[in-house]
Amino acid sequence: MHEYRTHDCGALRAADAGITARLSGWVNVKRDHGGLLFIDLRDHYGITQCVFPAGSPVFAAAEALRVESVITVTGRVVKRDADTVNPRLPTGEIELVAETVEVQSTADVLPIQVAGEAQFPEELRLRYRFLDLRREKLHRNIMLRANVIAWLRREMTARGFTEFTTPILTASSPEGARDFLVPSRVHPGQFYALPQAPQQFKQLLMVAGFDRYFQIAPCFRDEASRADRAPGEFYQLDFEMSFVTQDDVFATIEPVLGGLFREFGGGRSVTQWPFPRIAYDEALLKYGSDKPDLRNPLLITDVTEAFRDSGFGLFAKIVAGGGVVRAIPAPGTGGNPRSFFDKLNEWARSEGAGGLGYIIFAPDGAKGPIAKNLEPERAEAIREATGASVGDAVFFAAGKALDAAKFAGTVRTKLGADLGLIDGAKFEFCWIVDFPMYERDEETGQIVFSHNPFSMPQGGLEALNGQDPLTIKAFQYDIVCNGVELSSGAIRNHRPDIMLRAFEIAGYGAEEVEARFGGMLNAFRYGAPPHGGSAPGVDRMVMLLADEPNLREVIAFPLNQQGQDLLMGAPAPVPAARLKELSLAISLPPAPKKG
């Protein structure tokens, strides 16, 4: 018999009754029923109930065990009585009557409990992450992540992609966030950067003629934490393809993403591919966001003209100043008490808005503070434009176009959730396409890139030379699921002449572009294929599949919100001798003043 186990703790069934088995695992739960002591023994695979009868030579040893101690139990497998079968466990028809027990490792008093559903502060969970990972839900999430990655690797390989690894120590790249820098010992005063993404390397692989690349790529960005963004480190399904159009990229990756969510989505419905495509401008207008949650049926409508020169002075003034008014319907809320609207008004103020105006469409006409000062025919035009019915209410967001769109999107999301309109049994995918190539920086007034600077402008060099830059669209796209952006992607700019002109418009001289991106530009001068790709975030996909609100619930060893590893104690000071070896000196910011 094996020294530690003949079976794992999830393997034994009724057909095994009568055999002698040996199991090893952790003491999950102890229950003392007087003449019998029960221990639920847990390992990676499951739980088996072990029985220690009173008077047994091993009873005293079992009684002394603390939960989470590691033991090996040998005994006879017996069927449980019908009234003691546990249908919630695969092993619930049997139990192991212990004959010997060996303690492999004793556990101290636990700082957090492993068994049960008790909640603990996140700081404590991260400090004792090895215990937290033993808990059933988190253990299941991490296994889901591992299975998702394995599935993606098989699927991409089957579609003709080759997995390559790209450098971790590299040069700084303008990906929109701060780099993590690594000082060079042999080149004093110079630094490597950890890659924010393998962007340039995967494009260089296409130039090198490898045609279809992918990797489960680690990416590093020194940016603040959010629920859907881990600080420091994240992983993505990075892929690139040669000789492809935007349509080719979509047709290739849609069955992968759709198939993944069908495989691991637990029976929830998944958008049938080809996925809907929504232009960026349309997304802002209808959904108030470039990552819309299509499970929400509410649509935003532009009602600017209904308020132009109207009797409602506040909105009329905004429109006269070049602003817009957006309307968000709220079906069936017209009969709600005044407190419903007051609470939404207070919520809007907490979001930084002045309030949240509304109209109620009652059987005898439009009601509410706005309707009192708005001509009836204008109110009726709003009702028709929004598709509202008697008994509905319509809320408004007004201001500069982008500000009004974003706030309308926030209101849409709030109403969709509060009114129970979001179907949690769906995964709704869409592409956001036709992003603007450039935008104007409100602070400096300069033309800047609005998305990925390495993207091909629609219309190529002719558009760059002949169009107002703010009207140029790019072959850039985002894949969105349930309101979560999974990835940005693009058809790449593979022509040096187009790239230099594109950067020139954004204020970069040729010398600066050569200095910062000379490696890739030089490669393009020796023959580069048209190419494109994307990089759906693994962490975010697993978060959606696990129905978790926070990425830290699907990452084995995450940093906390402040970017600290509480388990390993990082970041941490290093000895002065090490700094000297790296030619570094520390200049700390002044301590904050007290009081």
Q: Any overview of this molecule?
A:
This protein is an alpha+beta fold and 595 residues long. The chain is built from 18 helices and 24 strands. The strands form 6 sheets. The protein has an 8-stranded mixed sheet with strand order 6-9-10-24-23-22-19-12, sandwiched between helices. Strands 1-2-3-5-4 form a 5-stranded mixed beta barrel. The radius of gyration is 30 Å and the shape is globular. It starts with 19 loop residues before the first strand and ends in a 14-residue tail after the last helix. The mean pLDDT is 95.
Please state the average pLDDT score.
Answer: 95
Treating each run of at least 4 consecutive H or I residues as one helix, how many helices? 18
Strand arrangement across the biggest beta sheet: 6-9-10-24-23-22-19-12
Number of extended strands: 24
Which structural class fits the helix and strand makeup?
alpha+beta
Alpha-carbon distance between the two ends? 69 Å
- Specify the overall morphology: globular
**Rounded to an integer, what's the Rg over CA atoms?**
30 Å
Fraction in beta strands = 15-25%
Largest sheet: 8 strands, mixed
| Low-confidence region ranges | none
* Helicity level: 25-40%
